[in-house]
Specification:
The protein contains four helices and no strands. With 113 residues, it is mostly helical. Helix 1 packs antiparallel against helix 2 and helix 2 packs antiparallel against helix 3. It is elongated.
């Protein structure tokens, strides 16, 4: 198999992931797009490892580390999204401007006025 086939597929997957990160407003869809980009990187690592016929299989080892980091990222990311959704009532990126408690933010703006 030629190296071009998985490389082109990985490039397309990565581009779809970048579009999802830049165009989506929902935090869960942004996290899914980041996962898609990480999977494109994993595909490239395994394809180049097979193409180079590396005896240590370094590409496959790095892929396992990437999968582990992606699993931890998605777990923490979803926990943060659920916490923000419970406190704010929305998962829209544009509406999440302040990191503090929304009740404190309204009290500060009322006290300043």
């Amino acid at each position: 198999m030629h190296l071009a086939y998985p490389a082109v597929l990985a490039a397309l997957l990565f581009c779809v992931g970048v579009y999802g990160v830049l165009a989506r407003r929902n935090v869960v869809l942004v996290l899914m797009s980041v996962e898609l980009m990480l999977n494109a990187v994993n595909l490239n690592l395994v394809a180049f490892d097979a193409w180079l016929r590396d005896s240590l299989h370094a590409g496959q080892a790095l892929t396992l580390f990437t999968i582990t980091v992606a699993a931890a990222e998605i777990g923490l990311g979803l926990a943060i999204v659920l916490l923000v959704f419970r406190t704010r009532g929305t998962a829209d990126i544009d509406r999440l401007t302040a990191l503090g408690d929304p009740a404190e933010a309204t009290e500060e703006t009322e006290a300043a006025a």
